[in-house]
Every structure is written in structure tokens, then in C-alpha cells.
Amino acid sequence: MRPLALLPRPGRARRAVLLCAGVLTGGVFGLAWWVDRFGRREHVGEADALVVLGARVLPGGVPSGALMARVEQAAALYHRGVAPWLLLSGGVGTHPPSEARVMRELAVAAGVPASACVLEEDSHSTEGNARFSARVLRERGARRVVVVSDPYHLLRARQCFRREGLEVATSPAPIAGRMRARDRAYWTVREAFALLLHPRLLWARAPDGR
Predict the structure, then answer these.
(1) Which residue ranges run through the membrane (predicted)?
(2) Starting at the edge strand that comes first in sequence, how are the strands of the sheet with 167-172 ordered?
(3) What tens digit of pLDDT does each residue of 72-100 get?
(4) Which residues fall within 8 angstroms of residue 191, CB to CB, at 6 or more apart?
């Protein structure tokens, strides 16, 4: 048995735990602040394509509020002439059909020609959105894109698409009236945790190094 004098002092161990907890908490909430601030601003310029990230499809193929808002925002950008076509990214979730197919119906109803809607139906995550979308974009010669999603999702989405070698601008879908403040706070903190768990995303830069 070690002499009592050599045992770690409870106060010192407690301070170490508190310090680690403080660093982790500060990191999470610091990232959450960045996630929130980034998602509140539109970063849109002329692009080769608009990429719309999928969201939940409800039973019977009914689009969720998030899915409708994302497509409405992308359709508005299309009509402004930001890009000549939409890449709708999202596979089949809990309820069919695929998110991409539901988004195409919404986009056409919003006045986007069906010929301007391209589907990507293999992805089931943000990283999958970026990976499979990048393949389609390269095949069509697209390099500069505007990614459309919920505000709290845009920072991580941009970083994922940057890792695929794309120039990325972002445009937030409106969430006022369809999401409570506490729900937005929850998803913002969740995104911060996702970035902390995948720190390589934080180092992704635009292809030209900016």
C-alpha cells in the first residue's frame, strides 16, 4: 500500500477533472457559437450548381418541414439565376421514396424545370451527401456550388464538401416559424459535437487555399 503522503490529493484530482470539463465545455460552446453565426449569413455567389441536402421524409412520402424549406430556398436561388441546375441529394430513409425524389417533386412545383433537377439517391449522411454529390458534380463539370440546408447544418456541410475539392458557398433555409428556439439550440450544439468528433473537418480549406 502506498504511504498516505504519496496518494493524490482529492482537491488536485477534482481540479483536474473540472479543468478538463471546462476545456471541453468551452470548446463545444465556442464551436456552437461559430456554427450559429455562420448559419445566419448567406454566402452566395454565381455557381455551377445548387446542391440541396435532404431531410426527413414522413410516412406516405410526405416531406418534412425542413425538406420543404430547403427546396423552397433552392428554388428561389434558381429563379434568381444563381445556378442553372439543382443537385438533390438524399437516399431512402425510414420512409420511402428517397429524399431526392421528394425534393424533385417540390422543386418542379416551385417552377424549376424537371430537366434542371438531378438526383443523388445513395447518401444517408452529410459526409455521404458530399462524397456522392462530388462524383455527380465532377461528371457534369461543376466545381463551384451553393449548398442549401438548415442554418445550423451549413458549417459542417461546407467543410465536408470542401474536403471533396469543391468551391462551396452556402445558403440557409428559413427556419422561423417551424423550429422552436430550444430545438435550434439543441441542433446547434449537436453540430458542434459532430465537428469535435471529426476534427479533420475543421482544417478543410477551399481548393485555392483561401
Answers:
(1) 16-35
(2) 117-120, 86-89, 49-53, 144-149, 167-172
(3) 999 999 999 999 999 999 999 999 999 99
(4) 31, 32, 35, 152, 153, 155, 156
Q: How confident is the model at residue 128 (pLDDT cuts 50, 70, 90)?
A: very high
Q: How many domains, the chain?
A: 1
Identify whether 206 is part of a domain.
no
Domain that holds residue 169: 42-201
- Report if residue 155 sits inside a domain: yes
Note the pLDDT tens digit of each residue in 134-188. Answer: 999 999 999 999 999 999 999 999 999 999 999 999 999 988 767 788 888 888 8
> Is residue 122 in a domain?
yes
The secondary structure of 134-202 as a DSSP string is HHHHHHTT--EEEEEE-GGGHHHHHHHHHHTT-EEEEEEPP-TTTS-HHHHHHHHHHHHHHHHH-GGGG
Task: Retrieve residue 11's grid coordinates.
Answer: 482537491
CATH code: domain of residue 60: 3.40.50.620
Instruction: For residue 209, give the C-alpha cell.
Output: 487555399
Helix, strand, coil in percent for the chain, rounding step 5: 55, 15, 30
